């Protein structure tokens, strides 16, 4: 088998798998085999007897390549762990861009002209189910002729806000000019509220406690640099 690291498409597929599952698939040869087939695009092999299959020569070669890759780039084993590094790096550069919320709209919805991108970046506090609270940025696009401003998930004209039909299928919901919630977190909270499991204040308290924002822990749970306390979810609790 040719080295998969030399093939860009295979490398892309490999990195996407690593993003989803980390390197834990190396622990079981049947898992390694599935990943190898996905990365290398080989035909599925049906195992009829259901017994643990021994690694064949190609699987072993693939596993050795992956192990070599992780030896050289151990941080790829946990992409999410690298998030706080990049977040803190972007904060220190004065541009919090670990998450950038920008509309995918390229042309004005009224006149069809290409939208201009506002060079002024607005900082947004982001509430994330796994990462806790951190700073990101939002970018505005506009049509100067129609005075339409396109934001992530909604657009405004003459001061009126119009939500896009698909705004709930975005990863984030921009709930105010400086606040965005990950939609899975919103759904989780709504779920608790609907079944009457916990009031919002309790949900907010558990979020703050989980990430060490409740004053019981000096350092953040996930190593993300501190965001001013006033911006924590308890403000909304
Ligand atoms: Zn226009």
Question: What's the topology here?
Answer:
Elements: H1 8-21, H2 29-40, H3 57-72, H4 81-92, E1 100-102, E2 116-117, E3 122-128, E4 132-139, E5 141-143, E6 148-151, E7 154-157, E8 160-163, E9 172-176, E10 179-182, H5 183-194, H6 200-210
This protein binds zinc ion.
Describe the structure.
With 237 residues, the protein is of the alpha+beta class. The chain has 2 domains: 4-92, no CATH class; 100-210, no CATH class. Helix content is 32%, strand content 19%. It is built from 6 helices and 10 strands. The chain has helices at residues 8-21, 29-40, 57-72, 81-92, 183-194, 200-210; strands spanning 100-102, 116-117, 122-128, 132-139, 141-143, 148-151, 154-157, 160-163, 172-176, 179-182. Strands 1-4-3-10-9 form a 5-stranded mixed sheet. Strands 2-5-6-7-8 form a 5-stranded antiparallel sheet, with no helix packed on it. Helix 1 (8-21) packs across helix 2 (29-40). The radius of gyration is 23 Å and the shape is globular. The model has no long low-confidence stretch (mean pLDDT 81). The structure holds zinc ion (ZN). The site of zinc ion has 8 residues, from loops. Zinc ion binds at residues 108, 110-111, 113, 143, 145-146, 148.
Could you give a quick summary of the protein structure above?
The protein has helices at residues 8-21, 29-40, 57-72, 81-92, 183-194, 200-210, and strands at 100-102, 116-117, 122-128, 132-139, 141-143, 148-151, 154-157, 160-163, 172-176, 179-182. With 237 residues, it is an alpha+beta fold. It has 2 domains: 4-92, no CATH class; 100-210, no CATH class.
């Amino acid at each position: 088998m040719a080295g998969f690291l030399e093939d860009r498409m295979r490398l892309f597929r490999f990195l996407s798998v690593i993003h989803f599952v980390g390197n834990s698939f190396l622990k079981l040869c049947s898992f390694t085999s599935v990943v190898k087939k996905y990365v290398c695009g080989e035909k599925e092999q049906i195992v009829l007897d259901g017994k643990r299959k021994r690694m064949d020569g190609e699987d072993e070669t693939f596993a050795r390549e992956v192990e070599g890759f992780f030896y050289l780039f151990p941080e790829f084993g946990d992409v999410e762990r690298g998030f706080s590094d990049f977040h803190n790096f972007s904060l220190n550069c004065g541009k919090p861009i670990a998450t950038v919320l920008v509309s995918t709209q390229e042309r004005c919805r009224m006149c069809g002209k290409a939208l201009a991108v506002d060079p002024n970046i607005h900082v947004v506090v982001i509430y994330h189910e796994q990462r806790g609270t951190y700073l990101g940025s939002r970018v505005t696009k506009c049509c100067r002729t129609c005075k339409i401003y396109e934001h992530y998930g909604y657009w405004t004209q003459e001061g009126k806000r119009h939500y896009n039909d698909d705004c709930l299928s975005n990863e984030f919901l921009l709930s105010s000019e400086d606040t965005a919630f990950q939609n899975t977190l919103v759904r989780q909270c709504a779920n608790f509220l609907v079944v009457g499991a916990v009031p919002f204040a309790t949900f907010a308290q558990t979020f703050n406690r989980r990430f060490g924002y409740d004053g019981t822990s000096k350092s953040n749970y996930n190593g993300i640099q501190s965001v001013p306390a006033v911006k924590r979810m308890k403000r909304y609790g």
